[in-house]
Specification:
The chain has a single domain, classed as Aminopeptidase (3-Layer(aba) Sandwich), CATH 3.40.630. Strands 1-4-5-8-9-17-10-16-15-12-11 form an 11-stranded mixed sheet, sandwiched between helices. The protein has a 4-stranded antiparallel sheet with strand order 2-3-13-14. Strands 6-7 form a two-stranded antiparallel sheet. It is an alpha+beta fold.
Length: 324
């Protein structure tokens, strides 16, 4: 019989091993490694009858701005399933655990994402969900830009004195264990660079196709252009998150200058990449895409249990990228 429950300290090694399993890609297989020593989220896990770690997911309950006041809502993310155990009714058992945890400490709704192209997840979670599972309501598209850092002048500062009250914006900018953070504000655009590399790392598990032997030649060209190089298998992709981004959305020039300085700050801290999340409808997305980047799209969902009314169409919620 499988075991589904909240994680305990003795589960840490198995959780970290599962989180580090390679995720296949077209050209590069990546390993998203995470430390669970001081994890602020609730960690839901599943073990097989033999005790093998089979699945994990994360549930966090931050205070977010909703309708002019702070409200406790949820984030669902960090799902990992060992490929050896897929298709063994893990999803149903995992949702049963989530329901027990939710009923013990309920919130009105959760935010979640599904990466574009993951038709299996969309079919299982959205189109063919069982009646007892929460309902996933589409709520826009999140565009994640992996921006190449660059050498540009910058001047970090203190956290802004004003409070951003954008819908779904975090009420508190709580630091995670081991996090390093640098704030930057420019003409009404504010946010910070979040370095979470002490607890979360993205490593190259391997290369596919011609990239396996073209990588050294490509790196010579990248080095000549002062652009990020592809590390050898097992190597670290050095990046940080643009977090707690707040503006009124009508300052494209100020945002461009702010982002340029953020990229310089990230390069100064030894990072090759800056990860920025903007909704597809964000007026600053067009500006951000002028910089060299890789683009990844995800469908955003507002998740509610049966008995809750369907949410109103309010546009894409703000998402703190590092929490997904």
């Amino acid at each position: 019989m499988n075991e589904f429950r909240l994680a305990r300290p003795e589960d840490r090694a198995d959780l970290e091993a599962l989180s580090a399993l390679p995720v296949p890609g077209r050209w590069i297989d990546l390993s998203y490694r995470r430390s669970f020593e001081q994890c602020r989220e609730q960690v839901l896990l599943g073990r097989t009858g033999t005790g093998k770690m089979a699945a994990l997911a994360l549930r966090s309950l931050p205070l977010l701005w909703r309708n002019g006041s702070p409200q406790r809502l949820g984030y669902l993310g960090g799902l990992r399933v060992d490929p050896k155990f897929q298709g063994r009714n893990l999803l149903a058992e995992g949702f049963a655990l989530l329901r027990r945890v939710h009923e013990a400490d309920p919130v009105e709704e959760y935010l979640a994402t599904i990466v574009e192209g993951n038709q299996l997840a969309r079919r299982l979670l959205v189109e063919r969900a069982r009646p007892s599972w929460p309902r996933f309501f589409p709520s826009g598209v999140l565009c994640t830009l992996a921006l190449e850092t660059r050498d540009d002048p910058f001047q970090p500062g203190a956290p802004p004195a004003w409070q951003c009250r954008r819908e779904y914006f975090p009420w508190e900018a709580v630091e995670e264990p081991g996090e390093r953070r640098w704030w930057l504000e420019h003409e009404g655009v504010a946010g910070c660079l979040r370095d979470l590399s002490r607890t979360r790392q993205t490593r190259v598990a391997g290369y596919r196709g011609a990239l396996r032997w073209l990588r050294p030649l490509l790196n010579v060209w990248q080095k000549a252009l002062n652009r990020p190089q592809l590390p050898s298998p097992g190597g670290l992709l050095k990046g940080g998150y643009a977090g707690f981004l707040c503006s009124d959305g009508i300052r494209p020039r100020a945002f461009e200058q702010w982002l340029q300085r953020m990229l310089g700050m990230a390069r100064f801290q030894g990072m090759d990449w800056l990860y920025l999340g903007l909704s597809e409808s964000d007026p600053y997305l067009e500006v951000a895409r002028r910089f060299r980047h890789r683009l990844y799209r995800s469908q955003v969902f507002r998740v509610r249990y049966q008995g809750q009314p369907a949410p109103l169409n309010e546009g894409t919620p703000y998402l703190e990228l590092a929490w997904l």
